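Sample A.
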Amino acid sequence: MPELFVELLSEEIPARMQRRAAGDLTRLVTNALVDAGLTYEGAYATATPRRLVLAVTGLPPRSPDRREERKGPRVGAPEKALEGFMRAAGLASIDEAEVMTDPKKGDFYIARTTVPGRDTITIAAEVIEETVRRFPWPVSMRWGERSADPAPLRWVRPLTSIIATFGPDNEDPEIVPVDLPGVPVGDTTVGHRFHAPGKIRVRRLDDYKTSLEKARVVVDLDRRRDQILHDAKNACHALGLDLVEDEGLLEEVAGLVEWPVVHIGRFEDWALDLPDEVIRLTIRENQKCFVTRDAATGALANAFVLTANLEAPDDGVAITAGNERVVKARLSDARFFWEQDRKTPLATHAKKLEAVTFHEKLGSQAARVERIAALAREIAPAVGADPDIAERAARLAKADLVTGMVGEFPELQGYMGRRYAEAEGLERAVAAAIEEHYAPLGPSDAVPEAPVSVTVALADKIDQLVSLWAAGEKPTGSGDAFGLRRAALGIIRLILANALRVPLAGGGAETVIAKTWAQLRSLDVHAEMTAASEAASDASGAPWIVDFILERFIVQQRDAGVSADTVRAIIPVLATIDLVDIVNRIAALSDFLASEDGATLMAGYRRATNILRAEEKKDGPVSGAPDMGVLIEPQEIALAEAVARVKTDVAEAVAREDYAAAMEALAALRTPVDTFFDTVLVNAEDASLRFNRLRILAALRETTLQVADFSAISG
């Protein structure tokens, strides 16, 4: 099976870029080959810390001939037009063209030519050259004597050589004649930088992998990951330990080594007095090592797993000792921060937030904390939290941002605040809220359940969304630098997961969003805040922000299997935007629409609204109760009476939030609606009769609008 094999060898490929680079290499090369008329059967790509590798199999030796058709001028056109056509089509004489007849345009010339295919090896050379020149590295560099050229070659690190071969699997392949100045191209590579730096000749992927394995290079990225994980678990098991797995670290370590060799290092017992996450993060970030737990107790152990990139003659004793020295120093630094930070109460740390800017238009972190604390007190009763405790937790929630430990490891914000609060003897609810108020950070992140934690988390996210919106930092199609979409989704998940009745708009009372907006009036924020306030009916920016939250809510519901139409059918009929109420309505409406009664009534509803739309376009809105004395047909009288009765039933069910009962009441209209349309002519000649029949349809529309705007539902 013919195979195009490519290895791009460089001085280094950063671990975080390798997997994406392998995918980009596959995409760029295979797309270009297909565009050139070449089909292929399969492609394999991988990466190591030094090389990108690609094999494309099942390529033909040559691209097929291609038929081209070029339309020319009309018969009898000026000589210059004919000459230009012949030149463009490659014709020696106009007699080589065919004459076609168009009923509208008359006779015109057309040239049909055959473009011969090209050798795959020639196409591959062009494709590889173009791919290297426009490879989408996040960062790249130029190097060497040619770095001053007008269009220098750029790569993530200096590109040292290229293997490019093409041929069938039963013959020696040819070297693809890639022309990249300053970069040798051939059929040789090198093995491990220390174990086997000499030249190795390869033909295609299979013998390349085999040869490099002998030269202490595991080519496949996934295989290196699996080998590290397997060897690390085995080494831990032999010592009565369990590996603390870390997918992100495993991917990174696999991208740092070509020949993974696992060793176990140790650190002093005193370090185990540090919080677990401090130990893990210190060892992970500084040494790219895994931590372990005691298999019997589950407690963190004073052992770590390191992955070397070579087989050392002393079986890794020196490498392990070197890592142990660095780990000890880093843990000593962490112990210093841990001890120093605890000498100062969190409330005192919090005062330092005055010097920390949250946003140039929104003031300091301390000012933000004041807003969050006030909002937490407002929200607490709806969540079932003690307002005093919620406010106290909010005032301390950001205090650890100015501690030494979080300054060293920003990822520990919240986590360290909780540990300092616990060490200080603060209430459990306060300590937990300090850590948990950041959650949820993503769609799969756990949602807090403790009332105080939920309260502070909601207050934090509402302030983040509203204040940054007011400062003009609204998300755009291309970016969301301040994570406002994530904040909106966090608000949604907190409310739904905890079934909180926290109205976002309407209801006659000032909502938490409106109150937060009002808190910002004293600040010199973006002019959009003033414009929004003037435009909004309730003199706040809440409607804008609520619409943004609702759009995220629609996306969240869509991901949960609910159509956007269903959500959009409910929102316009609501006096109060209450997400829990909306979800309850969605469930009942979805069940109703999936039933036979619902489907049949929807068909009748659409027929009714189509008639109303046409008539109202001519004569204006139809309103008011039908005059029963004018109606003459028993079917229209029956429908009018049924609609009046159901309207009352639906209103009562909606008032007590029994949406299943409301849908059941609507279902009772199915038969009278069907019978009405089967037997009654709405557009009667008698104007009074016609108008009252339209009033029956308008009453039907008003009855359904108590539950949802059915016109928003497609289908």
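Sample B, a different protein:
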Amino acid sequence: MFCQAHEITLREVSVSLGDDGVVWPSLRVAPKDGAEPHEVSLPEAITSSPKWSGLVVEVPTMTPAVLRHMVLPVVLAAVGPLDKTGWSGLMEAGCFSPSQVKLIHSYLEEHASQFDVRRFAQVPDLRATNGATKPVTLLMPHVPSGNNSALRAARNDEDPSPIPLAQAVRWVVHAHCWDTAAIKSGAVGDDQVKAGKTTGNPTGPLGQLGVVMPLGRTLFETIVLNLPITGRIAGDSPWWERGELDPIWKPRPAEGLLDAWTWMSRRIALIVEDGLEGPVVRRVVVAAGDRMTSTPEGEPHTTWTIKKDKKTGSVRSPRRLQPGKNAWQGMEALLALDREGSDFETSSLLKQAGDAQAEGLLGLDFPLRVGLWGLVYGTQSSVVEDILADELPLPVAALRADLDVRETVIEIAEQAAACARAVDALGANLRRAAGLDPVPWDKGQRPGTAVLHALDPVVRRMLIGLQQHGQDADEVESAHVAFERICAQVARTEALRVHAAAPRAVFAGREVKNPAGVKVMVREAGASRMFGAALRKALPRIHGAGDDGE
């Protein structure tokens, strides 16, 4: 419930904000009551966050960019750092206290000059050495612009339609987080410019991660779930506390979360024009910015892959999202709570949510969601080939190693994958029986993909059920049996399609060499037996009880 005292405080402080002529960056928000999304100022988006179900964005990858670069660092710098008591107090209250609202507004007033929409995250007087500007579409990965023509759209840089200034600022933030690694314009004042340009630019910092963020029922809950329970590192600060931006950049490590979240990976200037309904942007200058020398060890918005090396020990690197895979297919990484002996490690914020539940700070039935985002880059990361985004309901109890829900969640994801592999193996063996090579794993459409697609809504319904009833062992077991029956039905249905597409020659079969080099006969009968055996192994509840899954 939106606190009445909080509403009064908002009215008290709203008078002071804006009196100095600052035009605040704005965000599009979705009201909880289902009303039409609308734009509100950054201060209102934050302090009234309990009223919004979430952000409304131009492209999915803008959500983590806006949260990390604008919303979270303001709250953390103004209200944090939080200990367990402060964190749990926010979750329990469901809104910022009146004193916290005043802290946020005071902080924004202190740095108001940097938050003015006409200069936010920009170098206002930035100029390219050749005096040229680029179309504003250069900031948009989903719109072909220059070399970035892998994605198709109706707009392109030959016709850069003007966009409102407020929207352009959100694209500036997105560029700082996700921009391609292409050559950038050389800027006047940058002594590292060569032949009017800079090369060797890495992608924006989020482009090097598979971004993972816990999400709540409201924007407020999402903010709190993404605030680490930790102290602020000495010297760590967002860019707006560091003074005016200029064209000079350098490679360096991030000094802490606030620095990493608001990383200035580019130097950008919007060329603002007067439009019929207010200021608009048609052209932009984008130059090189600071280069983060390594992903911070404490980066909370990614899962990790751990590779063992006899000489150097364990090497930890951010885990990227895999194109074509649903979020639950990476469940082993999302639920990897202990890095010892594991190939993965989960996000520290997901682990924090599990710890909070163990201490009674979150209910077992809390409807936690996990958002995942990534970009697929091509040609030396100079173009964007695809935008990846998914959202997954995740039982908070699955983030506790001492509860059975975790094993259930991992098992259902593995079972769905095993059914897909069984169908793929059937298709591969039938192709061998027909004298053909199996479809390569990285080329063509494999039949198991259809199984995963059909099971996607089933897995998600199962996860929601575990959120609501995960503490009832009998109900979980009953739901798991039903899940296995559906898996068997889906796998068998796709197997029939694979059989229907096979030539009659598969019944006679072919003699082929197995991986050990031994000649064996492959025919339809053997392929079907292997398929049945794979299903029985993957779905033990229905087959172990004499249930054939039909």
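Observation for Sample B: DSSP finds 17 helices and 19 strands in the chain.
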